[in-house]
Amino acid sequence: MEYYINARLLEALVEADLALRFLNEGLVRNAAGKAFQAWRALLAALLRLEVNRLVKVSGTEEERRWLMERAVPRVPTSRMKALSQLLEEVGYGDASLWTDKRLTCMITNTMVRIRYGVIEVRE
Questions:
Q1: 33 or 97: which carries more pLDDT confidence?
Q2: Is the pTM above the cut of 0.90?
Q3: Does any domain span residue 19?
């Protein structure tokens, strides 16, 4: 468990560093993508760190199994907001607020790509 958390935290730091470098070089869209990946890695680390508490607040056995088998290792983009809300339930205030900001940044980034004729789909 500790190795996974450390790896995801290191990933978050590296992605955040790349985001700052890209931003300093004027590569705003690339920076937005890296900031999103940094936030996703940080969420993964927090989810794994608090998995026992999260299992206690989740409702059904199916939700618990999904949390352990899918959510924690993968952090699906489509469920990031719900996972952030779960983190808030176990004491991480404003997690969903910051997740909303990262998702908004990602959506804006995607809209800009589509507007200028470049269509990329990344998960």
A1: 33
A2: no
A3: yes
